[in-house]
Amino acid sequence: MSTRxxxxxxxxxxxxxxxxxxxxxxxxxxDIVQRREVLSQMLSATPVPPNPxxxxxxxxxxxxxGDLAVRVYSPKNASxxxxxxxxxxxxxxxxxxxxxxxxxxxxxxxxxxxxxxxVDYRKAPENxxxxxxxxxxxxxxxxxxxxxxxxxxxxxxxxxxxxxGGGLTLAVVLMARDRxxxxxxxxxxxxxxxxxxxxxxxxxxxxxxxxxxRAGSIEAWGWYLGGAEADQYAAPARAKDVSGxxxxxxxxxxxxxxxxxxxxxxxxxxxxxxxxxxxxxxxAYHASExxxxxxxxxxxxxxxxxxxxxxxxxx
Length: 315
What we know:
Layout: H1 9-21, H2 32-45, E1 54-63, E2 66-75, E3 82-88, H3 102-112, E4 115-119, H4 131-145, H5 147-150, E5 152-162, H6 164-179, E6 186-190, H7 201-205, H8 214-225, E7 248-255, H9 259-271, E8 276-285, H10 288-291, H11 296-313
Parallel strand pairs: 3-4, 3-5, 5-6, 7-8
Antiparallel strand pairs: 1-2, 2-4
């Protein structure tokens, strides 16, 4: 049975639709500028309705190379001050932006009763490592510095990211630990992209699902590193010491090429006496809960994730 045939049937429907429109998936578009444009067109074709329970405001933080955009989602009925979450978007270090996360950030702010601060960052190949994690670190520091003005409890700020955003989440907490920086109360690296070596069994298995496959991942890592050797902040799987990190929630799909590197990292956190909750979802591919929001499996993933983050926030 092929990897694609093992996908949860409900979650396969939008995936097959994507592959009909775009044979080979996103990574089949060789030009990165064109690939970004196609992604932008897909997102704009399905606009996100505003959530009446959430206020959105745009801010500017000072980054290492200039202004950084930060979009803040504040639940109207939350306790004051509310817990805060620094949110880092995905996109393989090469795509994505704040606009594509509006739906997820509004939903999370509403369901969690937390202020979500979504931080933008520079992308490869135009801006290779260390641009992205340094931008994210600066954006996260800005959130801590401005917590009171944002209605956030400065003693209850976590960090969340999916895919590349998950890898950057881990980069930021490692940097914060090593630099004596912000004290995050929890982290949620979701199916994080953390190992540039691509030597695990799952990284070899996932070649034709169409969302984030082996060839595209290898290409993205090459652009991100720009020929440099990866260190622990570029590829957190390389970290020799993962102790002293905040309590974690991690989940990943069984049919995600990042499966094995994420399982190994969760195991290492537990061995380093870091609190970690980990879920492996049968039948799920990379970001399937985003691409197939109507599937029962997606609802289960989100409900489990939201409940875990509420526990980590102390709610």
